[in-house]
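pls ignore typos typing on phone
heme C + seq
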Amino acid sequence: MPEVVARNRSTLMRPRSISVDLRPSAVSEPLSLCPPCLRGTLLALVASLLAITGCSLSTAPPFELNREGRDPAGIPAEQVTAVQQSLQKLFGTPDSPALPAGVTLDWNLLKAAAGPIRGEADGRQWGLYRRHCAGCHGISGDGAGPAAVVLAPYPRDYRNGVFKYTSTAPGAKPVRTDLVRTIQHGIPGTAMPSFRRLPTEEQAAVVEYVQYLSLRGETELQLLQAIVDEEADLQDVDEIARESVLRAAKAWQNAQTSLPVDGATTAESDAALKKSVERGQRLFVSPAVPCARCHGLAGNGRGEQSELYDDWNKRKLGATPEQTRQLAGRFKLPIEQLHPRDFTKGLFHGGDRPEEQYLRIYNGIKGTPMPAFGQSPGNPGVLTPQQIRDLVQYVRSLGPVGRL
Ligand code: HEC
Ligand code: HEC
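k done
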């Protein structure tokens, strides 16, 4: 069965972005609650009965426990309850979020993004995350909303706290502007749409909510590890949770600085640019750097190293096909391969500007096998800024419009 799903997905969906069809109404529809209650001719009457019957539009599905990779039947009920209750004390519910001590997110922005979808007469919008994002990214931020299964790559699961398109050192959290950039530009070549038409305040609100879901998810993972994997005493659950929140919050605060992008300029003259492209090509195909191993000698994404997975999917991979099949049952979405970028398409997911490609090669793409080649704290770096500049010009020159 998973094979069938995987085949459909890859043949139907892979190269296309279906953002337009899916956002926002088609995707958010399945999330509006109690649809059967709203059908029929006596709509007004039924609506007034909702409160009485308890079928209220303000009721949200709860945050789901992160069981990814675990055997659900193997987690004792009392551990599930302890973890869920502890998380709820700190982070509240989808309709009524809370901010734990030590987390410095903006409460007003968070409130605007959380909760059910509604608008006020003055145009103010609430429930922004559910309106614009949950259809793909899921209520819990697990990247497994109703639309996710047909998408390649899958929507981001925020709960590991890992983001691909950042300006920060390998292993570091993104800075806020990295997330804002993703919201404004989307991720071309994937289903992630651009939300640049949303008012700035609403963009800020969903960015705040992504961080909230991410912090909550990281806390949950650490709690599950302590309580389920290491069988810590259930009495200690709240204390472990508080410590986990502070650790996760600190990692976000530590990532306040982007690495310098000193190289990301266009060369001064056509002749200089041509030279840069030539140097970049020599480097790209030289055995001294591994680019061609993944991206292919022609830069078309077909290198010899083709069995690649991002960190979210790597966990679904067993040593044998049979193990992989068995593991698949423990995850919400079937295993999905990752493809190195085909530069002949000229489509850059992390942004179109040379400084953005510079950052990708310098810092790598987090959570994926695309390595970091620049210098960063604790890492001497493989390539100089000039070499990275040349590579940027070379990969850009491969696109259909040749960007020269
Ligand atoms: C139609 C589906 C869809 C919708 C709607 C959508 N996303 Fe995404 N989003 C994606 C996909 C797919 C990716 C992963 C792309 C990849 O891995 O390259 C993604 C990735 C992201 C990332 C990760 C960027 C990174 O650097 O790793 C963020 C943050 C994000 N989305 C935020 C949002 C927010 C906020 C909303 C709502 C305002 C939203 N998305 C709505 C599909 C969607
Ligand atoms: C181990 C495999 C591997 C190696 C080696 C590798 N890449 Fe990549 N690269 C990838 C993958 C996979 C992606 C796509 C990641 C994704 O979409 O999540 C990628 C993406 C990229 C992107 C696209 C960024 C964007 O915004 O779309 C650029 C540019 C790039 N690589 C350049 C290079 C260069 C230059 C080298 C050599 C210095 C290199 N890569 C080496 C695997 C690799």
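The two ends are 47 Å apart (CA to CA). Residues 270-305+340-397 form a domain with the Cytochrome Bc1 Complex; Chain D, domain 2 fold (CATH 1.10.760.10). more later
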